[in-house]
Write a structure and sequence with these properties.
This protein is α+β, with helices and mostly antiparallel strands. The protein has two domains: 115 residues, Ubiquitin Conjugating Enzyme, CATH 3.10.110.10; 104 residues. It is built from seven helices and six strands, in the order αβββββααβαααα. It starts with a helix and ends with a helix.
């Protein structure tokens, strides 16, 4: 299905659903949507902005939801990615407006906390700990072992990702060097070959992301991080190739 048609359909569904109101496209792109949610508590009125990005392979892969600006919430990680149940259980028949509604519902149940309030809470906790008598640590050896295992698993996943990228680049270089000489320019030949092999490698890595996510090999957060990384690098390389002519 044509991507422009898909994005136009999603926009129409958002505009026609009052529960999803408040989110609008960023600039002229229907792939990026942003909205501001307002919450009033006993500490005052706070406003928080969120962005929803529809990747190239949407709706086969879920949108990427991020918090705009620094805030604290149990479902927001250190890179500002928002974790939603609908994203973890994504199906191709789901729509953007449903993601917006799920985000609103989550933030209504557990509103985010501004950075200033976090800092004050941390300071108050530190003061209480220093003023109160010390108690034995309640951290069990099982928790320590679990933390160690998670750290080791994260390190292994990072090493595996680096190996995948290295392998893709080696395959791409081999493909470039087998091209007939008439397809290569003599000016800046070495630079063009390096850029072309990098372009092929990044295209291959992007193409494999959807399969890796669908098979459960990587999480949505890892998918979105790698997608942004590869597309940014690919854009730069294409511009360099255009400059070389």
């Amino acid at each position: 299905m044509d991507r422009d048609f898909i994005l136009a359909r999603e926009a129409q569904l958002v505009y026609s659903n009052t529960a999803a109101s408040g989110f609008t496209p960023v600039g002229d792109s229907l792939a990026r949507w942003q909205g501001t949610l307002t919450y009033t508590t006993n500490r005052g009125r706070n406003m928080f902005s969120f962005e929803v990005f529809l990747p190239e392979y949407f709706p086969n892969v879920p949108p990427v939801v991020t918090a705009v600006g620094w805030m604290d919430h149990p479902n927001i990680d250190e890179d500002n990615f928002v974790q939603l149940r609908i994203l973890d259980n994504w199906r191709a028949e789901f729509h953007l407006y449903q993601v917006v509604i799920a985000l609103k519902n989550l933030m209504s149940r557990v509103p985010p906390t501004p950075r200033g309030e976090i800092a004050k809470t941390v300071r108050d906790t530190v003061v209480k700990m220093t003023e109160s008598p010390r108690t034995p640590s309640s951290t069990s050896s099982a928790n320590i072992e679990t933390t160690a295992l998670r750290t080791e698993l994260s390190s292994m996943n990072q090493q595996l990702q680096e190996k995948n990228e290295e392998l893709a680049r080696l395959r791409a270089k081999q493909m470039v060097h087998t091209l007939p000489s008439e397809n290569k320019k003599q000016v800046s030949l070495s630079m063009r070959e390096d850029l072309e092999s990098e372009r092929i490698a990044l295209s291959e890595l992007l193409a494999s992301l959807e399969d890796r996510y669908s098979s459960g090999e990587i999480s949505i957060f890892e998918y979105s991080r790698l997608y942004k990384k590869y597309t940014k690098e690919l854009y730069t390389i294409r511009k360099q190739l255009e400059y070389l002519g």
